[in-house]
Amino acid sequence: MIKCVILDDELLAISYLKLLCEQIEGVEVIKAFNDPKVFLKEIGKIDCNVCILDIEMPGMNGLQVAELISDSKKIIFTTAYKEYAAEAFDLNVVDYVRKPIKKERLIQAFEKAKELVQHSQKKSLIEWNTNIGKTVIFTDQIAYIKTSEIDSRDKDIILNDGTNIVLKNLNFKNLLEMLPDKDFAQVNKKEIIALSSIKVFSTNEIITTIPAESDGFLKLQIGETYRKRLSDLFGK
């Protein structure tokens, strides 16, 4: 199943795209946005695998948006301007669909996306020993991992939807070897964060997109040993 999110500054274009997607088997539109900044603020919390981005938008264009999310989402560009084609494919996107969009052309783009999504899913799912038995978890659904307070040999996982699962008898060294290096970072001796769950990054602290038990969002203290790796990831 292709779960897609649409970003286009024109509401009529969004309505038309949604109508086309509804006619294509195996495609579900999860949400649509007409503001790039709002899209970027929320996309990390949305369960989707494909983003359909308009290129020509005021304030921030689709190419700029794609640079920020292309590591985690498959991208299909839509635009009425052919001059963006070279730049689009430099970003290694799934496809570049010219407006006005035709259903047959959109189907072709989704077929390409489906193959890439299936390929990446095969590489990003892991079978774990957990408190509920052998469990297959897609790594892109993991938001946060910490050492269990009950038994330090175990690790507590929080998924993007808030689900809690306990990994049994697994140390951080082996755990990090199993996780995609580009998607996760150890923050201190007891915590690992998915990069997609980071809201604010500073020298000593990370504010996440994960709701805190008391109020606001979960905050993590950065250990000295892990500061350089995190700074390198964020170009600081």
UniProtKB/TrEMBL annotation:
<dbReference type="GO" id="GO:0005829">
    <property type="term" value="C:cytosol"/>
</dbReference>
<feature type="modified residue" description="4-aspartylphosphate">
    <location>
        <position position="54"/>
    </location>
</feature>
<feature type="domain" description="Response regulatory">
    <location>
        <begin position="3"/>
        <end position="114"/>
    </location>
</feature>
<dbReference type="Pfam" id="PF00072">
    <property type="entry name" value="Response_reg"/>
</dbReference>
<dbReference type="InterPro" id="IPR039420">
    <property type="entry name" value="WalR-like"/>
</dbReference>
<dbReference type="InterPro" id="IPR011006">
    <property type="entry name" value="CheY-like_superfamily"/>
</dbReference>
<dbReference type="InterPro" id="IPR001789">
    <property type="entry name" value="Sig_transdc_resp-reg_receiver"/>
</dbReference>
<keyword id="KW-0238">DNA-binding</keyword>
<dbReference type="InterPro" id="IPR007492">
    <property type="entry name" value="LytTR_DNA-bd_dom"/>
</dbReference>
<dbReference type="GO" id="GO:0006355">
    <property type="term" value="P:regulation of DNA-templated transcription"/>
</dbReference>
<keyword id="KW-0597">Phosphoprotein</keyword>
<dbReference type="GO" id="GO:0000976">
    <property type="term" value="F:transcription cis-regulatory region binding"/>
</dbReference>
<dbReference type="GO" id="GO:0032993">
    <property type="term" value="C:protein-DNA complex"/>
</dbReference>
<dbReference type="GO" id="GO:0000156">
    <property type="term" value="F:phosphorelay response regulator activity"/>
</dbReference>
<protein>
    <submittedName>
        <fullName>DNA-binding response regulator, LytR/AlgR family</fullName>
    </submittedName>
</protein>
